[in-house]
Amino acid sequence: MATIKINEISKDELLWQIEYNSDRCTLCGKCVAACPFNAIEASVEKRRKVINEDSTPAPKVKFQTVPVIKQNINIKNFCRGCGICEKVCPNESIKPVRNTDEKFAMKVRAYTGDSYKRGGRNNLHTMPRALDKIKIGRISQMTDPSLDAQRHTFEMLAPFGRVLPPEQLPLTELNGQLELSKNLPPVRWIYPIILGDMSIGALSGRMWEALAIATAYMNEELGIPIRMCSGEGGMPVRLMKSRYLKYMILQIASGHFGWNRIINTMPEMTEDPAGILIKIGQGAKPGDGGLLQAKKVARHIQEIRGVPKADLLSPPNHQGLYSIEESVQKMFLSMNAAFKFRVPVAIKVSASVTSISVYNNLLRDPYNIVGGFFLDGIFGGTGAPFKIKGLLLGSSTPGKTRTNSSLGSRRLGHEWESCRGCV
Amino acid sequence: MCRIGAIKSRKYIHPSKALLLMRSQQKGHDNSGFAMVMQDLGGIFKDYKELPILSMACTDEGLNIADNILAEEGFVRAMQWSPETNPDPKLIIENMPHYIFQVLQYPKAFKYASRQEKEELLVNTRLRLRKALEVDEEGYVYSFWPDVITLKEIGDPKDIGTYFGLWEESENFTAKIITAQCRQNTNYDIVRYAAHPFFLQGYTSLVNGENTFYERNKLFQQSLFDGYIGFESDSQCFLYTLHYLNKVLKWPLNYYKHTITPLPHEEITQRHDKTVLLKIKESLTHLEINGPNTIIGVLPDGTLFTCCDSKKLRPVVIGYTDDTVVITSEVTGINEILPERNWENDIYPHERETVVINNDLRVEQWQQ
Hints:
The structure holds two protein chains of two kinds. By secondary structure, chain A is α/β, with parallel strands linked by helices. Chain A has helices at 30-34, 84-88, 104-112, 130-133, 205-220, 237-241, 259-265, 299-305, 324-338, 355-363, 386-392, 397-407, 411-422, and strands at residues 16-20, 40-51, 60-71, 94-98, 158-161, 171-174, 177-180, 187-190, 194-195, 227-229, 248-252, 275-279, 345-350, 373-376.
């Protein structure tokens, strides 16, 4: 008699279910060999078959043991839906199918004793996202002549930094020309894309470095001035000393992870960073603070953070701060002063009922030193909620790297090695 | 496409010149209305230079409403003039019962008021009148300002001219600056307010074009000044930007072009005045325009100018003699009223140019 454990994970709870057609399968084994997650394996099944060997009807029941491809059902070797099995199959006999009723995230927590959390992590359903709704079409069908993107050039640059209302600009007229009579807060003209604040720990060393290289490449080779935010947790010293620092926004969050190193490296910096981002709240995990999975807090991550031999929670709020006014005093002034008021210092909060109050308070700052206001949607710009990272990164290699490291498989060790190399 | 025109002269000129200027340029939808603003007035208004003139079209009830509000504010009538009309059922015109041009004396309480206080009073009174008349569409207030008259009507410009007797030259009704257009705005509902030229506190503008940044301009402008209302036409945005820069921020006129069509970023960074230009671009990005546009503007001191969108997608030409300058969409119009000029001196401005005509009729070409 079959038995099940009450909390044991079952196929209907998985994110992806393998649809396998044994009639078409030639048992070549390519899918099993190719699966990066060991989510399928060769197995056998007992089959009941009714056959007739006589010339007149004389059905007989025959039991057979047949070789099949079977999905592994456990929280480690689950199918991520990458579809590599479908790609390598010569006979269209296997493919992953998304399970819209999955309960995987919940199940993993129950299984590992992790409590259910508030915030963005309950994103269990696939919904259309803002990015899906952006349409770039014809500019105007009403104009004469009609305008389109080819005939009409557009300025894609946007200011990052404190932009003053026109009446506050310290402009004075001299012989018909306007002149600035005072210094103004720093403003960078950038392409309106900032790669989201994903730390080395949240991504992986390799992935993070690839993004940083891509950012520099876009700037230096393609002339597209995007910027990248480090995420909380610090940055490789080599990068901080390089001229590519000017494309990076350094993040400081409640844990102040990595700032010991940043401050120690400051005398050796040859360029100013693109900006400083003070993270007060994050849409992906509002109220929880950031907490990397225990296994991801490897030695190199501890080193970059400047917190050796310890697994640490990035607390939900900045411990030294009791009010927004105080945050202006302490954080904005000190961060601005640290870079001699040459670098825009921005703030990030999650989209919540208090966002507007925070914004209003910051606007009142008399020194014009708040260089930006970043608002995280509830699902975050960070890719931290499980579903988001799956959907945004798709099911190919980046997702694989990430998920692997988060679950501590064998490949993890390899990844740490390469990561240490880049630090 | 709207055709727009402006005449500035040393001598007082009659509106028939404006009708002649525009008529030869008419095409397509261009027969849907006529609008003009006359500034620096001669004739019967010549002796009232300092007093505000109310330009209004209204019904009997509208006249009552307006009189009551003006009396309540303390304005006293100094002179009133209504054009003699020639009603004829054959004329294509959607006329209003009354066309009022009323010269008023400032309220007694404003006897020692500063110029700015008086200017604010005029704008607020006009907004109040407009609001009150809007309720039952009892009337339209086009301008309320010293030395300025505005006339707008829906119909065939030729017939509108006949209705108001504008074809016959007369020394009673003249001005040194006349801006005009022969069209209603056909993209939207026919609204009397939607016809150029637009006027606000001494600033006039006419625009031939479509401003595809209308919504962006509008949302920003609405927060800047009480008088920035209406927005019946996307071209009003050009007037409000001009007023905001020159009147509110007190910036010289050459920054108008830098604001509505900033230079490409790379070019700005090469210039010696890049810090100022970048700050303007940062802070006034919502006043940038887009789409094909030619702008003609008049400043309170009588300076006349024209400039274009950053691609020069709409035509404009400037022709002049010793005592008259004409800016208009097509050269045929200038040939009509200045046939004797040296056409070799005509200016066809390019996309980076602002052409400015001073009060001594000196024509200057400014480069952005």
